[in-house]
Structure formats: C-alpha cells, structure tokens
C-alpha cells in the first residue's frame, strides 16, 4: 500500500495523514513485525519529538481504520504489521527470537481439522506457533550428536 493509499483510506474515515502517522506507518512497513517500542525507536530515529504514547495512540487509530494489525507472539507487547500483509501465520523461534511468516495455507489442514472436530474457526491472522527455526534446531541437533 502506498502513502497515497494510506492517505485515501484515512481520509475516507475522516482522518488525515499527519507526519506522525506517516512516520508510524513507515516504521511498521520497514520493520515488518515490530512492538510499539520497536516502532517508537524507528520513529524517534527520524523525529525525536514523537513520544511513545503518540505511537500507541497512532497504532490504535491505524488498526481501527484497517491499515495495521497486531498479533501476540508471546507474553510481551503485541507485534504490529501492515494489514495488507496479515494473511500469514507467525512462527516464533524460542531460541533466537526470529519471526517467520508463512502463508496461512501452511496450516490449512490444522484449521480444517479443528473446524471438523469442534466447529472452531481459527483466526490465523492472530496465530503464532512457537518452536525452533531450522538454524537453531540444526545447531542444537549437531551439538547433541557430538
């Protein structure tokens, strides 16, 4: 989504694309997945006067209008990413902290099984699965075999 698209979407809902909102949107896009603190850090690197509470309020507004979405990847703060990139599942490495986005089709069979077993409809946009990435699993397996 371009800045013009963001501006159009905000205006259609009665808001304007302020410099602070633009900075937050840019940071979310650049980070891919970022906590409010991560986003605030990226914003403050460009404009030190923007404080954390402004970032939180802006994220709330941008989520309300459908430009960003969040996922809880663990016990900490939510992680935000562009809403037009929300059709994925998050794989979170518990060893190195990497976040891998995989298409929702990768869990289609699991989602179907849950629906068939008990009628549960999974919202994959908020889904996070924890484990070890290939790099960490490989390094641990190699250490165990030595």
Q: In words, what does this structure look like?
A:
The chain has a three-stranded mixed beta sheet with strand order 4-3-5, with no helix packed on it. Strands 1-2 form a two-stranded antiparallel ribbon. Helix 2 (19-31) packs across helix 3 (36-46) and helix 2 (19-31) packs across helix 4 (52-64). It is globular. It has 146 residues and is of the alpha+beta class. The chain has helices at 3-12, 19-31, 36-46, 52-64, 108-118, 134-144, and strands at residues 68-71, 79-82, 88-93, 99-103, 128-131. The longest helix has 13 residues, at 19-31. The protein has two domains: 3-84, Arc Repressor Mutant, subunit A, CATH 1.10.10; 87-144, Dna Ligase, domain 1 (2-Layer Sandwich).
Question: How are the secondary structure elements laid out?
Answer:
Elements: H1 3-12, H2 19-31, H3 36-46, H4 52-64, E1 68-71, E2 79-82, E3 88-93, E4 99-103, H5 108-118, E5 128-131, H6 134-144
Helix pairs in contact: 2-3, 2-4, 3-4
Q: What's the main sheet like?
A: 3 strands, mixed
Alpha carbon gyration radius: 18 Å
Whole-number mean pLDDT: 87
Helix content: 40-55%
CATH top level assignment of the largest domain: Mainly Alpha
Share of residues in strands: 15-25%
Number of strands: 5
Q: What count of structural domains?
A: 2
The CATH topology of the largest domain: Arc Repressor Mutant, subunit A
The CATH homologous superfamily of the largest domain is named Winged helix-like DNA-binding domain superfamily/Winged helix DNA-binding domain
- Low-confidence spans: 142-146
Strand order of the largest sheet: 4-3-5
Number of helices: 6
| Overall geometric form | globular
The run of helices and strands is HHHHEEEEHEH
Structural class: alpha+beta
